[in-house]
Every structure is written in structure tokens, then in C-alpha cells.
Amino acid sequence: MIRHEQIEKNSGLMLVLTLVIISIGGLIEIVPLFFINDTIEVVKKEITETSRDANGKRVRTKREVDAIRPYTPLEQLGRNIYIREGCYACHSQQIRPMQDEYLRYGYYSLAAESQFDHPFQWGSKRTGPDLARVGGKYSNRWQSEHLKNPRSVEPKSIMPGYPYLSKNDLYYKDVKSHMKALRITGVPYSSNDEEYKANVERFGANVADLLVIDNAIENLEKQAKDGNYDPGREGISEMAALVAYLQVLGTMYQFKDDDGIEYSKFR
Hints:
Layout: H1 4-9, H2 11-30, E1 44-52, E2 58-66, H3 73-84, H4 99-105, H5 140-148, H6 164-167, H7 175-184, H8 193-203, H9 205-210, H10 216-227, H11 238-248, H12 259-263
Antiparallel strand pairs: 1-2
């Protein structure tokens, strides 16, 4: 048996063994990438669409589309603020398949839910609660007040306040460029009719309309106005974008009681 002392004194042997260890580590990191598509669950939902038949009569049809969609322009900029402010340092977005986490946070996270995240926000620390399913759990007003002064709604909270987010206007003039950059990474934002039609087939027309790069600013402004994410604030604030992002987390797919059985094969 080779002693550690012999390896340290023999530079050639140490070099060879170092290369062997690095190669093994590299294979462990690289090989799974060739099977990454097999790790993403197929998550569908049913939608109802209206069309006209040959006689011009309205016909309602149902079909399945992908439940997990890319973020809208407003949600994406809110996500950027989430990352900028370091929220990931205290909040994870990955519910593990354990009974105690299911009881506290809800159904465990699916790989499909992070497929459009660059980078993903799974996190590794929970100074605060997991946020994977926080969307819709609280009102927009609660979220904005909590971000301004956490102790106004949670007296024992140790979270710092972010009141300036409501004072800062959201800069979104470059949102189209941002979406084009994400498109290069594989996020299916559409820049032509062919890509738009593919999104209609994949997500449905309502979602596809939100993913058109050329309409990004109009879609952002409309969502901010309709959503009223920062109540009482005129214009679009950084707070509104961040709340829009938080309110969508975990809401794209509605789990059923038996979904744990269906998706357990991926765990």
C-alpha cells in the first residue's frame, strides 16, 4: 500500500493521481448533463380555447399545454431585483420531498419549475422560510408592507426592510434586450411569427402573447397597472416588480392530491 508520504515526495505520482481525481470529479459533473432532459418532468394543464368552425360559429375546445411558462417581462425584472438584493442568501426556493417540508411549505419542488431560471434560486440556507410556493399566499399589500417593514406584519421577523424599493422607479427601457439575452440561453421568448406560433402551441395564446419580445414594454406596463402590486404607488416601482415575481412563485401548476404518486418516479 502506498503511503501518503510517498505520494508527497514523488511529484510525478502525485501529478498522475491528481489528474485521476480531477477526471473523476469532472465526469461526475459533466455526464449528468447528457441526461438533463430526462430529469425535467412533463407538467401539463388543461386550457379552453375559442375558435370558429367553417360556418363561422364559435367553438370551445379543450387541450393540454405546458403548465410551466417563462416569466413575463415584469416578473423577470422583479426576479433581477430579488437577486440584486441578495434575497437568495436567506430564502431558498426548493421544497424537499420530506413530510415536514410538505406540511410547512406544500408539495415538493419539481425540476420543471426551474427550467427557465437563469440562474436557479434553490438556495442552501433558510434564515427565512422557503419561497417556492409563496405566490398568492398573501395579498399584494401584505407583500409590499412586509418588504418595507417586516415587523409591521411579522413582529418577530429579523428580516431587514427595503422601503426604498417603493420609492425607486423601475427601469425597464432595456427589457427587450434582456429578453433577447435570455432567449439565447433557451428561454422561449418569441421574436418572429414562427416562434410565436410555437409558443401558442406549447403554452396557449394568452401566454404566448406575453412572451413576444417586441411587445415587452406594453405587456410590462399593462401587467403592472392591472396587478396593482405596489398599492397606492403611482407609476411602476421596483417594489411592484419584486412583488409580481413573488406572487407567481409556485402558482403555475396546481397540484392535486395524487400528484405526489405520479411524480415520485423522478425522485
